[in-house]
Task: inverse folding
């Protein structure tokens, strides 16, 4: 069997050198790759476009794109197998794990873990370095209220099976922190610890102009969120589990604003009933049939946010959606590099669009599409320093109302 480790090592060394030299044309290949194996999902989570679209526009990665990806795998150290769908539902999930094993690539994925086939477990143990498991509650009611369509009992059973059989794989709970669950942040940490998770990561809710869920964004309840995240951090410390949450919630609580925010959280009415979902789905389907449905874009921000260095994803990674469209990362659908379905990888990786994004970073200006980046707000990028971080924490705004 071929040994790719030396090739990967060389590629990582080259990447480091080219980042230091601020190159915009790279000789190295991506060291980290994120591939959307499928955008099909079996859940109807209340904050996701699957809530109203269902699987109307879903599908799986094509064989053509998979074939082209194989050319890059000898250089990659890590592949993330998810995009905007449930990766464990990809029909060729086993084949992907075998492929990564053959090319000596480590895997990661964000999954709802509603499906866990017994035959996958040895492969997960061998290939995966981390599994991020989505969960936004701490019991059946709080979990199924948000992760609609999924079953808490199956979820917890699958987590236990995976934990028991793959102790070497780091397990991280991915929580979308929002108005409906922030007051239970400490309970969520306690629940994660009881299942053997290594870490809980609270991420920011991406608001959605079609759902019009703006009031659910914690940006409107900053001090209340700080109070509850502090409780979560204390719980995590006493339970010996790690916790990550956005940096603006690490600041001290403003007592004067707290009572009003607590009251606002208390008075929010949960709209996501079955009837509401059915009506949104019917409206969405109707618009799709008439050709008038589209996903509204976030309004471009005009303020300048300075930065030094380059984003790790821009310098060492690439995102491919299930159609083969390449972009900097999964956070960016606005500025694409090209389409692997009908282009050679080299023309994408060092194309004009990719070079322009790299140049922008080196010129010290954060691209607009990075303003809500979870990797920045959770301080997880090694080659990038961002100024004026406060400007990152403003409510998201859309060019138009998604429902007209
Ligand atoms: S900073 Fe975030 S949004 Fe911007 S390119 Fe990097 S990972 Fe993507």
Result:
């Amino acid at each position: 069997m071929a040994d790719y480790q030396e090739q990967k090592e060389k590629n990582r060394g080259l990447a480091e050198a080219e980042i230091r030299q601020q190159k915009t044309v790279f000789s190295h290949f991506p060291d980290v790759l994120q591939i959307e194996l499928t955008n099909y999902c079996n859940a109807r989570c209340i904050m996701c476009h699957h809530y109203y679209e269902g699987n109307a526009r879903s599908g799986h990665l094509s064989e053509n794109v998979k074939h082209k990806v194989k050319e890059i795998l000898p250089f990659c150290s890590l592949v993330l197998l998810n995009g905007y769908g449930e990766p464990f539902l990809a029909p060729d999930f086993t084949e992907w794990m075998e492929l990564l094993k053959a090319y000596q690539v480590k895997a990661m994925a964000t999954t709802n873990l509603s499906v866990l086939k017994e035959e996958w477990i040895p492969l997960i143990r061998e290939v995966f370095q981390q599994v991020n498991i989505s969960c936004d509650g701490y019991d059946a009611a709080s979990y199924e209220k948000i992760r609609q369509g999924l079953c808490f009992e199956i979820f917890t059973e699958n987590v236990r099976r995976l934990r028991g059989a793959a102790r070497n794989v780091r397990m991280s709970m991915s929580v979308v922190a929002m108005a409906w669950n922030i007051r239970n942040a400490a309970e969520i940490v306690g629940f994660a610890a009881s299942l053997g998770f290594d870490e809980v990561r609270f991420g920011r809710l991406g608001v959605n102009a079609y759902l019009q869920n703006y009031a659910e964004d914690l940006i409107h309840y900053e001090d209340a969120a700080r109070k509850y995240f502090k409780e979560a951090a204390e719980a995590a410390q006493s339970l010996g589990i790690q916790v990550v949450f956005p940096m603006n919630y690490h600041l001290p609580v403003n007592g004067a604003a707290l009572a009003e925010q607590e009251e606002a959280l208390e008075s929010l009415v949960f709209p996501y009933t079955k009837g509401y979902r059915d009506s949104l789905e019917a409206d969405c389907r109707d618009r799709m049939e008439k050709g008038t449905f589209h996903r509204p874009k976030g309004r471009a921000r005009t303020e300048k946010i300075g930065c030094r260095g380059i984003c790790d994803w821009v310098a060492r990674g690439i995102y491919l959606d299930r159609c083969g469209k390449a972009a900097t990362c999964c956070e960016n659908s606005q500025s694409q590099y090209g389409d692997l379905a009908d282009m050679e990888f080299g023309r994408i990786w060092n194309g004009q669009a990719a070079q322009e994004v790299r140049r922008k970073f080196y010129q010290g200006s954060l691209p607009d599409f990075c303003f809500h980046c979870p990797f920045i707000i959770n301080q997880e990028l090694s080659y990038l320093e961002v100024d004026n971080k406060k400007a990152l924490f403003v409510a998201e705004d859309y060019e138009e109302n998604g429902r007209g």
Q: What stands out?
A: The first strand starts at residue 32 and ends at 35.
